[in-house]
Amino acid sequence: MTTQQDAPAERADIAVFLASHLKGRTVEELSTEFHDLLEAVRAHGKKGQLVVTFVVEPPANGVEYAPLPIGIESTVKAPKATPPKDLYFLDGEGNPSKDDPRQLSIEFRTAPTTTDYKKA
């Protein structure tokens, strides 16, 4: 005959616990973060990551059967767009420059303007 003490303890379903944590606010926040991560991965074609951490602290003052503080933290590593790059040359002192130091420079002058057009 099996008694209540001999029966294996039923384990809490983590999905049910997560859904009920902070009256459902945690699962709503995680769902939003997950959706944003999926959108960033689709938009940038790079992998991303959502890490969910359960933080369990011992009871206050080590009192047996006291409530356990349990927190759920999340970290999102969403891909970002690659920032655009610009091209530069290094001048004789090693400073970046938009002008190619090997290229001869040409002095530009403003052409004279006129409003006197020849008749064709």
What does this structure look like?
The protein has 120 residues and is α+β, with helices and mostly antiparallel strands. The chain contains 2 helices and 4 strands. It has helices at residues 14-20, 25-44; strands at 49-56, 70-77, 89-90, 96-97. The chain has a two-stranded antiparallel sheet. Strands 3-4 form a two-stranded antiparallel sheet. Strand 3 and strand 4 form a beta hairpin. The radius of gyration is 33 Å and the shape is elongated.
Give a concise summary:
With 120 residues, the chain is an alpha+beta fold. The protein is 22% helix and 17% strand.
| Largest sheet properties | 2 strands, antiparallel
The mean pLDDT is 89
Judged by helices, strands and strand pairing, the structural class is alpha+beta
* Number of extended strands: 4
What is the general shape?
A: elongated
Strand order of the largest sheet: 1-2
Low-confidence stretches: none
Measure the end-to-end span. 119 Å
Helix content: 10-25%
Instruction: Please tell me how large the radius of gyration is.
Output: 33 Å
